[in-house]
């Protein structure tokens, strides 16, 4: 945001702003809330797959975002969490995706990234050879510069898409 506005803050001021933003997320009532169906779907998927988070943390820190996920009872569902403030790069940088894949112990061809932004989520995942599914439930990104493998509007729809992909992979090739 500051880059777009051509504003440079001294590191101390930026840290103070980030701390304020983190506290506001943690102290808000009700605070960040999950999208309908997210918790149940994530719990089911975690029983079948190794799940990871790749998040551009913006002003909030990975530490705070983990706390929000913990409050929702979902942190244990994720094998790893990659946050840009801790990694030092944001999506679509390939390192954000590759480091997560390495920690999950999977190749790009074995992984699917679910994200809402074309420029960072879809482009970044495709750059490293992952399948990429655009999540259009809360934000329908108008950018069409990179074609996702699918577009879903709910976590349940994403779960059904994954099931179809697994069925296709199990079918003998002719």
Choose one word for the global shape.
globular
Strand order within the widest beta sheet = 3-4-5
Averaged pLDDT: 91
- CATH homologous superfamily label of the domain at 36-57 and 76-170: HAD superfamily/HAD-like
Q: Would you tell me the structural class of the helices and strands? A: alpha/beta
CATH architecture of the domain at 36-57 and 76-170, by name, is 3-Layer(aba) Sandwich
> Any idea of the CATH topology of the domain at 36-57 and 76-170?
Rossmann fold
The number of strands is 5
CATH class of the domain at 36-57 and 76-170: Alpha Beta
As residue ranges, the low-confidence spans are none
Residues in helix, %: 40-55%
What does the largest sheet look like? 3 strands, parallel
Supply Rg.
Answer: 17 Å
Per DSSP, the total helix count is 7
Give a verbal description of the structure.
- The chain has 174 residues and is of the alpha/beta class.
- The chain has a domain at 36-57 and 76-170: HAD superfamily/HAD-like (Rossmann fold, 3-Layer(aba) Sandwich), CATH 3.40.50.1000.
- It has seven helices and five strands, in the order ααβαβααβαββα.
- It has helices at residues 11-27, 38-48, 62-71, 84-87, 94-104, 118-127, 155-170, and strands at 51-55, 78-83, 112-115, 131-135, 150-152.
- The strands form two sheets. The chain has a three-stranded parallel β-sheet, sandwiched between helices. A two-stranded parallel ribbon has the order 1-2.
- Strand 1 (51-55), helix 3 (62-71) and strand 2 form a beta-alpha-beta unit.
- It is globular.
- The protein starts with 10 loop residues before the first helix and ends with a helix.
- The model has no long low-confidence stretch (mean pLDDT 91).
């Amino acid at each position: 945001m500051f880059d777009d506005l051509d504003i440079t803050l001294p590191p101390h001021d930026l840290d103070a702003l980030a701390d304020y933003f983190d506290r506001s997320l943690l102290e808000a009532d009700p605070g960040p809330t999950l999208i309908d169906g997210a918790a149940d779907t994530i719990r089911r998927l975690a029983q079948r797959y190794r799940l990871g988070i790749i998040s551009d943390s913006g002003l909030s820190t990975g530490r705070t975002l983990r706390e929000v996920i913990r409050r929702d009872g979902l942190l244990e569902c994720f094998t790893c969490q990659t946050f840009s403030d801790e990694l030092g790069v944001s999506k679509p940088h390939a390192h954000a995706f590759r480091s997560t894949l390495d920690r999950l112990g999977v190749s790009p061809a074995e992984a699917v990234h679910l994200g809402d932004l074309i420029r960072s989520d879809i482009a970044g995942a495709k750059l490293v050879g992952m399948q990429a599914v655009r999540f259009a439930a809360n934000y329908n990104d108008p950018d069409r510069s990179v074609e996702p493998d699918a577009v879903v509007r709910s976590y349940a729809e994403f779960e059904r898409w994954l099931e179809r992909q697994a069925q296709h992979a199990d079918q003998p090739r002719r």
